[in-house]
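Consider this pair:
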Amino acid sequence: MFWQITPREAMVILEGADARDMTQMRLSQAMVWATAQLVAVGFHNPKNFPKFDKAFPGAKADREPQSDDAIFAAMDRWVAKTELVEASAPKGMD
């Protein structure tokens, strides 16, 4: 609950939310720009309308599936990092 977190934890939460919102805004801007470009080409010169792979290079890039060991190793690194952050937080700010 909000009153049980430290000011540092509140700041980390707010910074993360801000970063998430900025990322979402940039993605929305890129989508709007790409849509406008494709509409302009489609209207003015439909014969030159690009294929999907040319308009969005890397969009269909196949990623290798992660093994269970790789997933668990990533989770272990994340847990260790969060424990380090919690251990370095000031005590007695309940």
In short: The radius of gyration is 22 Å. Residues 2-88 form one domain. Helices lie at 7-44, 52-55, 68-88. Residues 17 and 91 are 24 Å apart (CA to CA).
